[in-house]
């Protein structure tokens, strides 16, 4: 897919972005399609759920695509996949040696609605509220995720669900082109192998946005970012 990622390990504090939690991940190594762990499982430490960690540290990294649609650009959908998560090694995140979208095992799908919008000359502000779901895909029984097929990101077992409030600050740098800076608050509302109910994250992301319709303000965004425990 042209978006391969380098996999390593995260240190015990969850602050390194080039490493994955070695000791905890080793305890979870198994077949690519195997369950992460039991419901609300832990990352080698019973007090720390998968994806959790010390407050203020980055524990999850992801890539994704956002589509803004509707008559006034009021509807949002996002699909993507996790590239890092505390407590999970590469075999739990990807089905093979090549780590990219096609081999991803933890996929995300989110929908949201526009709450408020302030348009200015070169910097625009949008507030969005929605829900994000995380799925564990079994490559033996499902097709590879495809950004052109949003439903392909909702295959397998629902591993977690989050309420999401998001702010998007878009800096326009050329005609129909902008750089989004997204910050969001996530509150986990269901858990089945990832995280735990009540866990909170602070999400940040950036990337590139393209205006596809200047009348309806429809747009497409390519993003990458992370979640930090709060």
Provide a short characterization of the protein structure.
The chain is mainly beta and 230 residues long.
How would you describe this structure to a colleague?
This protein is mainly β and 230 residues long. The chain has one domain (22-229). It is built from two helices and ten strands, in the order H-E-E-E-E-H-E-E-E-E-E-E. The chain has helices at 22-26, 90-93, and strands at 42-45, 48-49, 58-69, 75-85, 106-118, 123-136, 157-174, 177-191, 200-213, 218-229. The strands form two sheets. Strands 3-4-5-6-7-8-9-10 form an eight-stranded antiparallel β-barrel. Strand 8 and strand 9 (200-213) form a beta hairpin. It is globular and about 45 Å long. It starts with 21 loop residues before the first helix and ends with a strand.
Strand and helix map with partners:
Blueprint: H1 22-26, E1 42-45, E2 48-49, E3 58-69, E4 75-85, H2 90-93, E5 106-118, E6 123-136, E7 157-174, E8 177-191, E9 200-213, E10 218-229
Antiparallel strand pairs: 1-2, 3-4, 3-10, 4-5, 5-6, 6-7, 7-8, 8-9, 9-10
Question: What are the main properties of this structure?
Answer:
230 residues; 4% helix; two-stranded antiparallel sheet; eight-stranded antiparallel β-barrel; mainly beta; single chain; 10 strands; 50% strand
């Amino acid at each position: 897919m042209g978006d391969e990622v380098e996999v390593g390990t995260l240190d015990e504090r969850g602050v390194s972005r080039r490493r994955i939690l070695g000791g905890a991940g080793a305890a979870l190594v198994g077949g690519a399609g195997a369950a992460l762990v039991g419901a609300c499982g832990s990352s080698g430490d019973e007090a720390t759920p998968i994806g959790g960690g010390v407050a203020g540290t980055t524990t999850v990294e992801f890539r994704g695509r956002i589509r803004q649609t509707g008559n006034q650009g009021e509807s949002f959908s996002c699909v993507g996949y996790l590239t890092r998560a505390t407590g999970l090694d590469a075999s739990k995140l990807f089905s093979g040696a090549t780590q990219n979208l096609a081999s991803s095992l933890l996929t995300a799908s989110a929908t949201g609605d526009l709450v408020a919008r302030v348009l200015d000359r070169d910097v625009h502000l949008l507030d969005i509220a929605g829900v994000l779901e995380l799925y564990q895909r079994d490559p033996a029984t499902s097709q590879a995720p495809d950004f052109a097929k949003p439903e392909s990101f909702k295959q397998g077992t629902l591993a977690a669900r989050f309420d999401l409030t998001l702010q998007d600050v878009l800096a326009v740098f050329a005609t129909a082109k902008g750089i989004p800076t997204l910050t969001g608050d996530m509150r986990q509302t269901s858990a089945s192998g990832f995280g735990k109910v009540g866990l909170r994250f602070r999400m940040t992301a950036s990337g590139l946005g393209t205006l596809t319709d200047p009348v309806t303000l429809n747009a497409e965004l390519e993003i990458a970012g992370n979640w930090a425990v709060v």
